[in-house]
Specification:
By secondary structure, the chain is an all-beta fold. It folds into 5 domains: about 5-70, Sandwich (Immunoglobulin-like), CATH 2.60.40; about 75-155, Immunoglobulin-like; about 160-255, Immunoglobulin-like (Sandwich), CATH 2.60.40.10; about 265-360, Sandwich (Immunoglobulin-like); about 365-505, Sandwich (Immunoglobulin-like), CATH 2.60.40.680. The chain is elongated, with a radius of gyration of 31 Å.
Length: about 500
């Protein structure tokens, strides 16, 4: 079955001679109603990935069937491209969404990217297209046999140009010196070019005597540093930087005035951590104070906007607030994500402030089972061992300090012979109350990290014996669900994955 599907099971009662009996009362039950429930008439509904044993009882006789709930299949792949053209040597990043038949997004599905003509453009496993030569090429994304494609046009390489290492500020006081750092780059690859000629800064708008300071700088190893430019007149201005043989570079608007490019400071944030089973976000509460370049708190109501400028965090709510008296705004920003991040606060008048934060949740704690080779065979009566544990995604900055795992198997196919603890630097608690129904829950906690980034850590070893009986021949699955995983400060890992290994009983 797939998630959300519904089927109806039918039970036929017979006597000892095989004659069908009618009018007998039946009762149905599920070994795991969180995975699949069953009604009094045998209707089975799939709620979560995993396996459940459905048992029907008629008087003193009973029969069982194992229901395995699988993920919804991919029905559609949709490629999104910011642009359908790229220059030779440059890149454009494509993304692909996997959808079910109802148009809902499916997560954790692998996507394979391919280029129809790698002489025109190549594409990486992450969907990054690199232009190779001029022409058109079809780029395809495939998941579970479902495909989408787009046509990318590769244009001639860009000419050599200038690029900012450090751009001029968005706002300054009149006559206050500011800095800009300009680099010469190759148009095809974007790589630095070792240019040693002059680079000249001029105003885009005509304004005599406005731009002062050293406006011509000799580049060294392709870098020109302007360290004492200044604008003398209030208003909004742009600078143009030029060098012989390179495309010129124009800055963004520079606001010159008393309030141009002030600052935003914050009080020490208080943090509300995620609560197990209730919230998955961290909420930061602090007071932001907006000041102009003279250090004076702004008097007029001003909108303060927050955005993440470094790190994987995402602002869920509270990203905007208007200041009151004294130029202050009390902000409560809820964040979901991983690791440390920088929070940029800004106003329409260009006051800014960047503040380092640390989230209290992370992503991608993978529960896993020690997998057998494909089509591994275990004979009836044989015993075998599987180690279960956790692996942390390489993109996560945190290690796992506690985990709750649940192992599931078919009790009709396998008998749990023994369980043991593999991990020595943590306490392990096993809940064996569901073993008869093929369920064992383990809680593992340690003062130090019990699982680290990019490495699978074995924690529990289970030894099984293969039973003999009807319906066990063929492929059997043993699954592990990471119900909860937390980091060193109790950070709740947002992504908790079901993993399985398969065996074949001949």
């Amino acid at each position: 079955m797939t998630l959300g599907a519904r089927i109806t099971l039918q039970a036929t009662a017979t006597d000892a001679s095989g004659n069908v009996l009618t009018g007998r009362a039946t009762s149905w039950r599920s070994s795991n109603s969180e995975v699949a429930s069953v009604s009094s008439t045998g209707d089975v509904t799939a709620f979560a990935l995993g396996a459940a044993t459905i048992t029907v009882t008629v008087e003193s006789a009973s029969a069982s069937a194992t229901i395995t709930v699988a993920p919804l299949p991919v029905a559609r792949v949709r490629i999104t491209a910011p642009t359908l053209s790229v220059n030779e040597g440059r890149t454009v990043s494509l993304s692909a969404a996997t959808l079910d038949s109802a148009g809902r997004t499916l997560t954790d599905r692998s996507v394979a990217w391919a280029s129809r003509n790698t002489a025109v453009a190549t594409v990486s496993s992450a969907g990054v297209v690199t232009g190779v030569s001029q022409g058109a090429v079809v780029i395809a994304a495939t998941s579970e046999g479902i495909r989408d494609s787009v046509t990318i046009t590769v244009a001639a390489p860009l000419p050599p140009s200038l690029a900012f290492d450090t751009a001029p500020p968005a706002g300054v006081l009149p006559g206050r010196a500011f800095r800009a750092r300009v680099r010469t780059v190759d148009g095809r690859t974007g790589a630095p070019v070792l240019y040693t000629g002059p680079v000249v800064a001029t105003l885009v708008q005509s304004s005599t005597g406005n731009l002062v300071g050293t406006t011509t700088v000799q580049a060294q190893n392709g870098v020109a540093i302007f360290d004492n430019l200044a604008l003398m007149q209030n208003g909004s201005w742009q600078l143009r930087f030029a060098a012989t043989g390179y495309e010129p570079l124009v800055s963004g608007n520079i606001t010159v005035g008393a309030n141009g490019n002030g600052t935003i400071t914050i009080s020490t944030p208080t943090v509300a951590r995620p609560v197990l089973g209730t919230t998955t976000t961290a909420t930061y509460s602090f007071t932001a104070t907006v000041r102009d370049l003279n250090g004076v708190a702004v008097a007029a109501p001003t909108m303060v906007n927050a955005e993440v400028v470094r790190g994987n965090a995402v602002i869920v709510s509270g990203g905007s607030m208007t200041t009151g008296s004294g130029g202050t705004a009390t902000m409560q920003i809820s964040v979901r994500g991983s690791g440390t991040f920088d929070l940029l606060l800004s106003t329409p008048d260009q006051q800014t402030g960047t503040h380092a934060m640390a989230t209290l949740s992370s992503t991608a704690a993978f529960g896993g089972a020690q997998r057998f080779a494909p089509d591994s065979v275990v004979a009836v009566g044989a015993t075998f061992q599987i180690n279960f544990g956790v692996q942390v995604n390489a993109q996560s900055p945190l290690a796992v300090h506690s985990v709750v795992m649940e192992m599931n198997w078919s009790p009709d196919a396998f008998e749990l012979v023994s369980d043991s603890t593999v991990l020595t630097n943590a306490s392990v608690t096993l809940n064996r109350s569901g073993v008869a129904e093929g369920v064992l829950r383990a809680t593992v906690a340690g003062t130090d990290a019990i699982a680290t980034i990019g490495r699978f850590t074995s924690m529990i070893a289970l030894r099984f014996r293969v039973k003999d009986g009807d319906g066990i021949r063929g492929v059997q699955r043993i699954q592990v669900h990471t119900i909860e995983a937390r980091g060193p400060l109790g950070e709740l890992f947002q992504e908790r994955v079901t993993s399985e290994t398969t065996l074949r009983v001949p």
